[in-house]
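To assess whether ligand presence alters the predicted conformation, the chain was also submitted together with 1,3-dihydroxyacetonephosphate. Input:
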Amino acid sequence: MSDKQCIALIAHDLKKDDMADFARAHQASLAKFRIVATGTTGGRVLDAAPNLDVTRLKSGPLGGDQQIGAMIATGEVDMLIFFIDPLSALPHDVDVKALTRLATVYDIPMALNRASAEKFIDFQKG
Ligand SMILES: O=C(CO)COP(=O)(O)O
């Protein structure tokens, strides 16, 4: 197993362009991590930055958020970047809540918007 830290990347539909842009802009920083992502987000990230080490899980509405939540609970995810869309109704809203709850329970760094994610990258550069 890789000794790289693991970062989870997720974006809701209206935020996926933003996530693709974020991944492209910060490929060098993100390359230091193992990345797990929900299915569609992971595809967009790989299109934008093909050299990143991305494992794609299920799509969010089909269980991807819960898979990442489980990985947080088992200590496999060190950091969460989740570009949420607070203006759209989602069929899997309970899964989103469960995921952000577990990130809080296990006290892992969690950025829910791009401004926070940019700060993570800045901090990580030192
Ligand atoms: O819905 C999501 C997170 O709640 C994201 O899932 P996708 O990346 O598969 O679209």
